């Protein structure tokens, strides 16, 4: 106890060492090179700024204030660890708006945690417990904390401010947010983002300058007056099936000679299978995918599209098809208010939605009724819509194969080899196998009812299921065994798009690069609807070739996917890294600076456009 009291007298040093341990743990997990002596120069000065303020303004109970500061720093570092494990980026204050989602996806969040992360809370518990123990032991025992010279405090405060400034200022223009955080220090970066965001609107493009011809010029697109397949399926129903966490490597994958997704395999073999198709979601994950597909606009930089963008009068696929005589509906077994979907569906113009209130909570998997229930009840509604005499647009959102992939034991039918037992990868494979079975039954029902032959049907994954940042070395080796190559960004973001369009599609693997933002213009072309006068940032996959996909949130700003690689910038374009889409291509040309700049310009145009759209409350 005497040692603890002595350390208490040197509280400044004690809490510096405690927090240095915690920031080192965060750096070890988040940054490739881990902590170094430079870490001290970027993180420690921020601790000292806070400690100096405590010494100045707290006349008593200083140890309590140190403990509170320690707890707050600890919570921040813990949040950085957890957020990075799923999103691959450094969390900022923007994520606070989605803090309520943590409780609703608790199992998913907790599964990302390595037990040793909790070690960073041990000292907090001890520091709270000791005074309580002492007060019970003897009220006479006091921790005599000697004051620190105010002159020394002033000098230390000034030096700390200078060190923080010189960590932030030279790195403020870095394009890569993770690189910024590494060079500035995590705490300096958190503060920097608050002030940096206040100047983000400076480059807003005026509405009159945001035109479709301008967007096409940036993308290098020359729309044809006689686009191939234009109106080929005019008047056909449109069914879009969004599959939870479905990645492209699942198609054709076998485990011990057994197909993991036999129904998707069959659909891919019998129709157009775009195997270089990519998720483009941001913080809103599944709801962002719905937004991308239905608006052909990029997701926001720092938040889910369902936070602020849905307050606008948005151009959308349901509205386009509605003008052509379609009725529309969306189907999801979760509560409609999760991810603010009620506002999303109003903003993009669905005629009606079906959520948990329709599907119930029986046969519960993940956050609602199972995919079996989803498809069984949806087919009945589609048959009713089909009998109305009007074509319909239906978007169906599956959910059973949601991270962390804990489906009920009764629904597990795929036996795994021992090496995959009780692993995230094994659970992922089993949950996708279950979802595939439910999907197969639904496809059979569509064919039985005659709806299949009279409908354009598109199936795609909403987002990655196995974030590379979440996998440990053992799991990465398991993925290498399954894929035959190292698992990386190209595999993680690669989702399938399978397209069935009567009279148009046939068995074919399409190599061209595409993303979720391209679905709206592709459907518009097939249904014979002109979008020349509607702002959209995607391109028709049936008529345009080369593509550049700007990525957000899950990769640093400036990241793009081209026809040959995933490009991630460093401080700027010049020190960026290319990750080939083809794992055997070690000598690809790499993304060009022109493509990188095009992507940034497109993102700015999309952001500027949405911000200047009229608010929905102005809509009659």
Automatic annotation (TrEMBL):
<protein>
    <submittedName>
        <fullName>LTA synthase family protein</fullName>
    </submittedName>
</protein>
<dbReference type="InterPro" id="IPR012160">
    <property type="entry name" value="LtaS-like"/>
</dbReference>
<dbReference type="InterPro" id="IPR017850">
    <property type="entry name" value="Alkaline_phosphatase_core_sf"/>
</dbReference>
<feature type="transmembrane region" description="Helical">
    <location>
        <begin position="12"/>
        <end position="31"/>
    </location>
</feature>
<dbReference type="InterPro" id="IPR050448">
    <property type="entry name" value="OpgB/LTA_synthase_biosynth"/>
</dbReference>
<comment type="similarity">
    <text>Belongs to the LTA synthase family.</text>
</comment>
<dbReference type="GO" id="GO:0046872">
    <property type="term" value="F:metal ion binding"/>
</dbReference>
<dbReference type="GO" id="GO:0005886">
    <property type="term" value="C:plasma membrane"/>
</dbReference>
<keyword id="KW-1133">Transmembrane helix</keyword>
<feature type="transmembrane region" description="Helical">
    <location>
        <begin position="63"/>
        <end position="84"/>
    </location>
</feature>
<feature type="domain" description="Sulfatase N-terminal">
    <location>
        <begin position="236"/>
        <end position="529"/>
    </location>
</feature>
<feature type="transmembrane region" description="Helical">
    <location>
        <begin position="116"/>
        <end position="135"/>
    </location>
</feature>
<keyword id="KW-0812">Transmembrane</keyword>
<keyword id="KW-1003">Cell membrane</keyword>
<keyword id="KW-0472">Membrane</keyword>
<comment type="pathway">
    <text>Cell wall biogenesis; lipoteichoic acid biosynthesis.</text>
</comment>
<dbReference type="InterPro" id="IPR000917">
    <property type="entry name" value="Sulfatase_N"/>
</dbReference>
<keyword id="KW-0464">Manganese</keyword>
<feature type="binding site">
    <location>
        <position position="402"/>
    </location>
    <ligand>
        <name>substrate</name>
    </ligand>
</feature>
<feature type="active site">
    <location>
        <position position="286"/>
    </location>
</feature>
<feature type="binding site">
    <location>
        <position position="244"/>
    </location>
    <ligand>
        <name>Mn(2+)</name>
    </ligand>
</feature>
<feature type="binding site">
    <location>
        <position position="462"/>
    </location>
    <ligand>
        <name>Mn(2+)</name>
    </ligand>
</feature>
<keyword id="KW-0479">Metal-binding</keyword>
<feature type="transmembrane region" description="Helical">
    <location>
        <begin position="147"/>
        <end position="169"/>
    </location>
</feature>
<dbReference type="Pfam" id="PF00884">
    <property type="entry name" value="Sulfatase"/>
</dbReference>
<feature type="transmembrane region" description="Helical">
    <location>
        <begin position="37"/>
        <end position="56"/>
    </location>
</feature>
<feature type="binding site">
    <location>
        <position position="463"/>
    </location>
    <ligand>
        <name>Mn(2+)</name>
    </ligand>
</feature>
<feature type="binding site">
    <location>
        <position position="286"/>
    </location>
    <ligand>
        <name>Mn(2+)</name>
    </ligand>
</feature>
């Amino acid at each position: 106890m005497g040692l603890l009291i002595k350390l208490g007298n040197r509280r400044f040093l004690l809490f510096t060492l405690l927090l240095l341990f915690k920031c080192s743990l965060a750096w070890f997990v988040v940054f490739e090179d881990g902590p170094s002596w430079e870490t001290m120069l970027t993180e420690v000065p921020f601790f000292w700024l806070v400690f100096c303020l405590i010494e100045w303004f707290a006349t008593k109970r200083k140890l309590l204030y140190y403990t509170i500061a320690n707890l707050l720093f600890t919570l921040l570092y813990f949040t950085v660890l957890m957020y990075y494990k799923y999103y691959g980026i450094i969390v900022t204050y923007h994520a606070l708006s989605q803090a309520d989602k943590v409780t609703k996806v608790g199992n998913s969040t907790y599964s990302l945690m390595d037990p040793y992360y909790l070690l960073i809370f041990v000292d907090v518990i001890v520091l709270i417990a000791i005074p309580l123990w002492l007060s019970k032991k003897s009220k006479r025992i006091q921790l005599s904390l000697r004051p620190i010279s105010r002159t020394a405090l002033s000098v230390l405060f000034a030096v700390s401010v200078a060190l923080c400034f010189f960590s932030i200022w030279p790195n403020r223009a870095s394009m890569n947010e993770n690189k910024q955080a590494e060079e500035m220090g995590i705490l300096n970066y958190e503060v920097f983002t608050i002030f940096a965001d206040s100047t983000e609107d400076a480059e807003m493009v005026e509405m009159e300058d945001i035109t479709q011809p301008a967007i096409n010029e940036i993308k290098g697109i020359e729309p044809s007056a006689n686009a191939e397949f234009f109106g080929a399926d005019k008047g056909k129903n449109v069914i879009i099936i969004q599959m939870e966490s479905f990645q492209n490597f699942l198609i054709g994958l076998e485990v011990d000679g057994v197909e993991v997704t036999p129904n998707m395999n069959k659909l891919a073999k019998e129709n157009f299978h775009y195997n270089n198709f990519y998720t483009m979601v941001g913080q809103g994950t599944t709801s962002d995918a719905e937004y991308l597909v239905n608006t052909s606009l990029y997701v926001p930089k720092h938040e889910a599209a369902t936070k602020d963008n849905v307050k606008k009068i948005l151009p959308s696929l349901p509205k386009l098809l509605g003008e052509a005589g379609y009725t529309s509906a969306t189907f999801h077994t979760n509560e409609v208010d999760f991810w603010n979907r009620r506002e999303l569906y109003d903003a993009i113009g669905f005629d009606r939605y079906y959520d948990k209130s329709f599907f119930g909570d029986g046969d519960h998997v993940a956050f609602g009724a199972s995919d079996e229930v989803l498809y069984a009840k949806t087919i009945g509604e589609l048959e009713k819509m089909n009998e109305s005499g009007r074509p319909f647009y239906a978007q169906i959102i599956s959910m059973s194969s949601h991270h962390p992939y804990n489906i009920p034991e009764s629904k597990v039918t795929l036996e795994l080899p021992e090496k995959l037992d009780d692993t995230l990868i094994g659970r992922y494979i089993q949950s996708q196998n279950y979802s595939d079975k439910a999907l197969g039954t639904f496809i059979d029902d569509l064919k039985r009812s005659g709806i299949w032959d009279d409908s354009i049907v598109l199936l795609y994954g909403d987002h990655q299921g196995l974030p590379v940042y979440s996998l440990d070395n053992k799991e990465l080796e398991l993925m290498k065994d399954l894929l035959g190559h190292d698992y990386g960004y190209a595999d993680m973001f690669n989702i399938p798009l399978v397209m069935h369009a009567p009279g148009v599609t046939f068995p074919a693997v399409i190599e061209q690069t595409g993303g979720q933002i391209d679905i709206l213009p592709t459907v518009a072309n097939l249904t014979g609807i002109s979008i020349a006068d509607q702002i959209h940032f995607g391109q028709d996959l049936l008529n345009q070739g080369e593509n550049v996909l700007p990525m957000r949130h899950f990769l640093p700003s400036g990241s793009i996917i081209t026809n040959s690689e995933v490009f991630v910038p460093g401080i700027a374009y010049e020190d960026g890294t290319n990750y080939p889409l083809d794992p055997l291509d070690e000598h690809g040309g790499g993304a060009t600076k022109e493509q990188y700049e095009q992507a940034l310009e497109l993102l700015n145009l999309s952001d500027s456009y949405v911000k200047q759209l009229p608010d929905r409350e102005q809509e009659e």
